[in-house]
Structures are given as C-alpha cells and as structure tokens.
Amino acid sequence: MDQDQLKQAAARAALEEIREGMLLGIGTGSTVNHFIDLLGRHQPRLAGVVSSSEASTERLRAIHLEPTTLNETGDLDLYIDGADEATRQGHLIKGGGGALTREKIIAAASRRFICIVDESKLRGVLGEFPLPIEVIPMARAYVSRELVKFGGRPEWRSGFITDNGNEILDVHGLDLLNAAEMERRLNQLAGVVTVGLFTRRPADVLLIAGARGVERLEPGKPA
Ligand code: 5RP
Q1: What is the pLDDT of residues 130-164, one digit of tens each?
Q2: I want to staple 110 with a disulfide (CB 3.0 to 4.6 A). Which of 11, 52, 76, 102 is the partner?
Q3: CA 159 to chain centre
Q4: Topology of the domain covering 3-122+200-217
C-alpha cells in the first residue's frame, strides 16, 4: 500500500468512531480530505460540524455539510485531524498545511481528539519535521531572531498567508526532547500566535495505518 492508501485506511477507521448526533470538529490536510469524502459517501446524521480551515470548509460544502462555528456550538464531542508527526504518547507536530491555529482551538474545545496518521509519521521524538509557528506578520523577523537563540533555524514560508491573515515560520533543528516545555516557552514569545506542537492538548486516540492494518492507541488511558 502506498502512503495515500494508508491515509485512506486511517480515515476509514475514524469513520467507525462516528456516532449519530455528534458535534464534530474537522481538521485539515490530505488525510482529513479522505475522511470528508467518506462522510459524503456515508452521510451519518450529525448535530453539526466545525471546520479548521477554509479549505476543509469548501470540501465540506461540496458534500452538502455546511459548517457552523465554535461560538455557536460550545464544546465538541469529537475532533478528527491528521498530523505531520506523532509520538505514541499522542504528542504531535501539526501545521504542515498552515491551519495550526484553528486546529489547536478546535482540539482544545473538543472532549475527544482522534488523530489519523500513516505509520511514516510515527516518531520516538518529535522534530524531524520542521516545526510550524504562526506569527503576526510584523513580528516575523523578531520571532525568527528569538528562535535562533532557541537553537532553531527558522524558514519563512514565503508567499503563504494563513486563514487568519498571519505568516508561518517553519523551524528546523529545535531540540524537542522535552516538547511540552518547548511548547510552553515558544508560546510566550511576543508575536507568536500558535506553535504547532500539540503536547499540552495531545491526541486522545491515535489511529495509525500501516501495512498490517490500523493500530488504535489511547495514550492517556491507564493500562
Ligand atoms: C494541517 C495539518 C495536517 O494535519 C498535517 O499537515 C498532515 O497533513 P496530511 O494529512 O496532508 O499529511 O496539521 O495544518
């Protein structure tokens, strides 16, 4: 199976977690696109959906699901999203698609977060994938200088503007052995809107698609 088929398999496993009447958060990216396509095919009866990006909103509209907003719904039952990297503890790097801010907000406002990935995204320690950080445009150079002090090599995602009108720095080379502490410290830099580390609100469930099927992990659950 190629990577796209594995992404489809993870999306299919996520569909099995959907129950009638749920309020659902929908992430962004190619794995989630497969999930949206499956929603279109199976049309489960949902109480509503909230989308993490304009791109996902457009795709949801194409299957006749009109997203509502978090301000109207209150907390969501379930959030389904992909990731760029994941550990077996449910810690994630997200934001490859640039939707990290809305993704983090929806994850925070969801009772359960299911992350769907193919096995190539699994890591012992995060950080091979450059860490996306959304910044206020006027702070880009300042935040870049600060990130160098953290040992990072920030690269401006030139020409890319987020759905919130901000810019992205993709940071290479950060030591993420203690990713939770790094998330906390980077969050405090003036001009940083969102850090693409999800350790303070990790995934509750990981659905990891591999050659031998989809593994279901619940990192926070006592054994
Ligand atoms: C978007 C994200 C995506 O979840 C992440 O980039 C993974 O994307 P894909 O499913 O296309 O591999 O965080 O901001």
Answers
A1: 999 999 999 999 999 999 999 999 999 999 999 99
A2: 76
A3: 21
A4: Rossmann fold (3.40.50)
